[in-house]
Amino acid sequence: MSTAQTVAQLFALDPLLEPEELAIRDTVRQFGVDRLRPHIADWFEEGRLPVRELAAELGSLGALGMHLDGYGCPGMSASAYGVACMELEAVDSGIRSLVSVQGSLAMFSIHRWGSEEQKQEWLPRMATGEALGCFGLTEPDFGSNPAGMRTNAKRDGDDWVLNGTKMWITNGSVADVAVVWAQTDLADSPAGIRGFVVPTDTPGFSAPEIHKKLSLRASVTSELVLDDVRLPASAMLPDAAGLRGPLTALGEARFGIIFGSMGAARDCLETAIAYAQSREVFDKPLAGYQITQTKIADMALEVGKGHLLAYHLGRLKDRGEITPEQVSTGKLNNVREAIAIARECRTILGANGITLEYPVIRHANNLESVLTYEGTSEVHQLTIGKALTGEGAFR
Known about the structure:
Elements: H1 7-10, H2 19-36, H3 40-46, H4 51-61, E1 69-70, E2 73-74, H5 78-91, H6 93-113, H7 116-128, E3 133-136, E4 152-156, E5 159-170, E6 177-183, E7 193-199, E8 205-206, E9 221-232, E10 236-241, H8 244-278, H9 290-318, H10 324-349, H11 360-370, H12 377-389
Parallel strand pairs: 3-6
Antiparallel strand pairs: 1-2, 4-5, 5-9, 6-7, 7-10, 8-9
């Protein structure tokens, strides 16, 4: 009998990673085994996550803002950050979301667009997990069209006064600082949009948590309410004018999803293979039936191709050559394939596939959110379509 291979062996994936990237992958994977996997099903079922506790541990691991330079950030490559996201999402999308929002949205926005004072105040503490951040762009009525946001910032003397509501904000109710995007009347800002660094203990700021979720249950999701939140002029991100600021940050988060979604897909496939090898049907292992092997082979192809695409885009990003259209291509393909793989794996597990004893239905539910956040599949299809045809079709 031949020895079974993994998808990594089938596609010879490990030689495509640098030694440092392999070391980071193995470290984060072991952290998942030791610290996260024993608890994740309970956290998901109970609809909670010990965010502050985990943030401190992830900070000591170097996983928060790991691809940023200076201010206590590790300054790793984009590919290293990607493989870390892959291992975190192999455990649960909610864990990777915590890291993505902290590092790729909140920290990245301050690092890229903030003043030196803002960077010094927040980034070192955010890198260690001492301070938590969130990112306020999406609104109840404006997700795919952020230019229509109603949250506004009006000048009052030397201050800014913010009013509005943001929705579906990861880490919102546990954050120490929120990067909030709002409409202003500044002539130098396209559409008037500017970003503000908002300490969450500012009077008028509240973040009620959203409950009764059936996806990303092991994640804190909140609404942000800004009711006459008064900020000094120094709270504005000085170098971010218009939608370029938030959309650049979203590109960073989407990049992590390209890798992360394949972690979830791989975990589902490995679970399904192990189950099929041990489950007997008609006095024979389920893995020994042609239809089961056909499913496994087809899913392995997509997991392998998804890894190759992620690694390729990682190298492009490391060279500073990646484009938004390429990020959209990776996000659209890998998340779409990951959710299809999760659903197919559920069929191999049968009734056992709907329980939290196995990770498959949890991954499938989580991927329903990953499919639509950081840009819906339709938005990414139109982005790719515009790149290929030269015609915009968003409206």
